[in-house]
Amino acid sequence: MMTMTNRTDVTIAAINGHAPRIHPSAFIAPGCRIIGNVEIGAEASIWYNCVIRADVNRIVIGARTNIQDGSVVHCDSPKPGRPAGYPTLIGEDVLIGHMAMVHGCTLADRAFVGLGSVVMDDCTIESDGMLAAGAMLTPGKTIGARQMWMGRPAKFARDLSDDEIADHQAGVARYVQNGKLHAEALGPGA
After folding, report:
1. What is the per-residue pLDDT for 7?
2. Structurally, how many domains does the chain consist of?
3. pLDDT score at 87
4. Quick count: other Cβ atoms within 10 Å of Cβ 47?
5. What is the CATH number for 140?
6. Which residue, 29, 30, 153, 167, has most beta carbons within 10 Å?
């Protein structure tokens, strides 16, 4: 059974006895659909027209993480031989670019997923690791700390510099601030 709450063209829905838990300081843009066993941390931002659907497993989104416009986050259900399935676990200070697909994977603190990228089941992006724009990380792959992978299927390209990692973290801070500006512009209930 599914119950829904709509506010400013946002759907926040409980399903199978699990309702989303969203920190009051998080920004949820109009057009988003947040369903099921979802936890969203402090100062996170979920941008316009994203779908965060945890109907068959759980999704955790850490503090200050941003999931940019049009992205889809889902998880994988338990199956024979995989009794826990693949939840989607997203750490703190993660950047997920526009129109990304993130499914049944783990993104450690400060991971980066480029716009239009796909991260599939049982993948991991370690701290400060990056999947480049338009890339596809196929099932079971791990991007190591400070590595950048690119292509379809994605392969290791090079290590990231200190300046690139600092730039990613500056982007996190900009998104926290931008979320506050958008919430203010949209008014109460946004």
Report:
1. 54
2. 1
3. 98
4. 23
5. 2.160.10.10
6. 29
